[in-house]
């Protein structure tokens, strides 16, 4: 089954809603980064959140970068989403030790840490990108995204993310939802939404039970109801190319390129976001030197 996200609105028009199934893209990201279970859960949640946040921007050719740096063993998580919600990303340390809150429940907060920040960089195709940063609340990613929207963008938000790692260490299910209150939402709407979130509980059991993003949003929104407006397929998608790698090599400068060419061996460059390797012969490097 392909991954997709769905955008909707409460029947009264006061709540924006996004739900996502991200199982395959999280699988792909974990495969590329070769993550252990705790890192898979943390990285997968970040990929899922960034996909929804990137799609919400709705700016042609825009992008969103989500960076989580909490001082935990995983180091820094960096995820980039395009305007549709396709994502790519990397982690500093994919081989983190197994830490559980209790048997069967991975401790993502301990893996990420709480001594740091969540930073969002929005490239809206303007002169300068918008950069917002808030201190981490729990390292669980969902709570931290919620806090980011409230503190940095003054938007009351609820974000729930789930990644279930199976016994064979593969990703069984992944997904989540993101709800935002629009200005002037009455207290009655807030109360109904809070009760719906509490009644529904954690998102992972709902995903594991086979519920679709539409069903999850319907459950959480409860009496508020939900009208679905748009469905978009999303995937793990890297935009690297040989041309971009050539530009990066040229930026190293003449001296370093001359040293690489002088070694007389093929020079491999691996994309940090995917498993693509670009190989440059000494002659390839000399051709780049001519472009400087």
Number of domains: 2
How much helix, percentage-wise, in residues? 25-40%
CATH class wording of the largest domain? Alpha Beta
Q: Helix segment count? A: 10
> Could you tell me the number of beta strands?
14
Across the major sheet, the strand order is 10-11-2-1-12
Mean pLDDT, nearest integer?
A: 94
- In the CATH hierarchy, the third-tier topology of the largest domain is known as Hsp33 domain
Uncertain parts:
none
Overall CATH architecture of the largest domain: 3-Layer(bab) Sandwich
In N-to-C order, the SSE pattern is EEHHEEEEEHEEHEEHHHEHHEEH
Q: Which term fits the overall shape?
A: globular
Termini separation comes to 47 Å
Rg is 21 Å
Q: Helix and strand layout, with pairings?
A:
Layout (H helix, E strand, L loop, with lengths): L3 E7 L4 E7 L1 H11 L3 H21 L5 E7 L6 E7 L4 E5 L8 E3 L2 E2 L1 H5 L4 E7 L6 E6 L6 H11 L4 E9 L5 E11 L5 H14 L2 H6 L4 H9 L4 E8 L8 H9 L3 H9 L4 E4 L6 E4 L1 H10 L1
Antiparallel strand pairs: 1-2, 1-12, 2-11, 3-4, 3-8, 4-5, 6-7, 8-9, 10-11, 13-14
Structure description:
The structure is a single chain. With 292 residues, the chain is of the alpha+beta class. It has 2 domains: 4-233, 3-Layer(bab) Sandwich (Hsp33 domain); 242-291, HSP33 redox switch-like (CBS domain Like). Helices cover 36% and strands 30% of the residues. The chain contains 10 helices and 14 strands. The strands form 4 sheets. A 5-stranded antiparallel beta sheet has the order 10-11-2-1-12, with helices on both faces. A hairpin with a 6-residue loop joins strand 13 and strand 14 (277-280). Helix 1 (23-33) packs across helix 2 and helix 9 (254-262) packs antiparallel against helix 10. The N and C termini lie far apart (47 Å). The model has no long low-confidence stretch (mean pLDDT 94).
């Amino acid at each position: 089954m392909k991954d997709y996200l769905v955008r909707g609105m409460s029947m009264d028009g006061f709540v924006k809603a996004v739900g996502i199934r991200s199982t395959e893209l999280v699988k792909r990201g974990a495969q590329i980064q070769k993550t252990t279970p705790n890192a898979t859960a943390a990285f997968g949640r970040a990929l899922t959140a960034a996909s929804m946040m990137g799609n919400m921007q709705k700016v042609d050719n825009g992008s969103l970068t989500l960076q989580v740096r909490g001082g935990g063993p995983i180091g820094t998580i960096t995820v980039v989403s395009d305007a549709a919600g396709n994502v790519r990303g990397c982690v500093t340390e994919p081989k983190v030790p197994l830490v559980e809150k209790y048997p069967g429940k991975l401790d993502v907060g301990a893996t990420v840490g709480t001594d740091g920040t969540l930073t969002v960089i929005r490239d809206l195709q303007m002169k300068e990108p918008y950069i917002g940063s808030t201190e981490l609340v729990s390292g669980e990613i969902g709570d931290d995204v919620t806090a980011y929207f409230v503190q940095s963008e003054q938007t009351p938000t609820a974000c729930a993310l789930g990644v279930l790692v199976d016994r064979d260490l593969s990703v069984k299910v992944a997904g989540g939802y993101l709800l935002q209150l629009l200005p002037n939402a009455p207290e009655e709407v807030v109360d109904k939404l809070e009760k719906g979130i509490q009644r529904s509980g954690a998102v992972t059991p709902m995903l594991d039970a086979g519920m679709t993003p539409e069903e999850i949003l319907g459950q959480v929104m409860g009496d508020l109801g939900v009208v679905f407006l748009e469905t978009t397929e999303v995937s793990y998608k890297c935009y690297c190319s040989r041309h971009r790698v050539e530009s990066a090599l040229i930026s190293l400068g003449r001296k370093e390129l001359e040293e690489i060419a002088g070694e007389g061996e093929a020079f491999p460059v691996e994309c940090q976001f995917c498993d693509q390797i670009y190989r440059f012969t000494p002659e390839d490097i000399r051709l780049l030197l001519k472009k400087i």
